[in-house]
Amino acid sequence: MRKKKLREVESLSAKHFSRYGEFLVSFELSKHGWNVYSPMYDEYIDLLIHKHVCKVCGRTWNLTPALVCKKCGKDFSKTQKNRIIAKKICADCGHEMIGNKTRCEKCKSINLLNQPTCDKCKGEVEMVSHVCECGRKEYMTKFRSVQVKSSRIEHKDGKSKNTYAVDMKPRDLIKDKSHFYIWCLIDHNDKPHFLVMSVEDFKKTMGDSLKGISFFKDQDRQHFSAKDFGKWGKFLNKFDKLE
Ligand SMILES: [Zn+2]
Ligand SMILES: [Zn+2]
Ligand SMILES: [Zn+2]
């Protein structure tokens, strides 16, 4: 079973494999609360991501309003919407009715007021905008651009070299504090590992190689251990860097 799956990922063309890496990175980013977008055409940026967070404590912000009972605080937003009782109150005689009435049962008035009602305490359900658990009402939007590089384990003469390889070129160096690299490394079991770094992190770790002729000529290929990721290991799962 395992062997068959491995062969499938290994047999993806370079182009498809790179799309596959972008997909895995997107999925991982969404687990960290990011919304992920793909550029209309491909230049140097593979993904554009954004998220809304509390301005003060950084918790993920929910932009859609919640449906909450005024009286007991029961939250109907997610799975409980169908439990909201459709109550109508006659504006003329005050008679209360349940269901899809268009006319007052008592005085025949068509002047009915809607009152979404809590099934638990009969209080009124209202729409409230999100307030953070920390009590703040202000949020902020973060935008980041991401470049994804993917690698499978390198082989030589049909034998695993237990290394990954990533190509870097001068044009990949986007000097922007909102720009990040995510390397997606697929091991022998098809399990992805993610290295997350800023452009500054990348430059620091590359050191003098950045001045190397091979880098200038678009021929720089960073090879590193598939076990501990060598000097790049410190960026393993560092999704916090994006924050
Ligand atoms: Zn907060
Ligand atoms: Zn209630
Ligand atoms: Zn009435």
Task: Sum up the structure in keywords.
14 strands, alpha+beta, 243 residues, Trna Endonuclease, Chain: A, domain 1, 5-stranded mixed β-sheet, 2 domains
Write up what this structure looks like.
By secondary structure, the chain is an alpha+beta fold. It folds into two domains: 2-52 and 150-224, Trna Endonuclease, Chain: A, domain 1 (3-Layer(aba) Sandwich), CATH 3.40.1350; 66-128, Single Sheet (Rubrerythrin, domain 2). 16% of the residues lie in helices and 33% in strands. Strands 1-2-8-12-13 form a five-stranded mixed sheet. Strands 5-4-6 form a three-stranded antiparallel sheet, with no helix packed on it. The radius of gyration is 27 Å and the shape is elongated. The two termini are 39 Å apart. The model has no long low-confidence stretch (mean pLDDT 89). The structure holds zinc ion (3 copies). One zinc ion (ZN) is lined by residues 54, 56-57, 59, 132, 134, 136. One zinc ion binds at residues 54, 56-57, 59, 132, 134, 136.
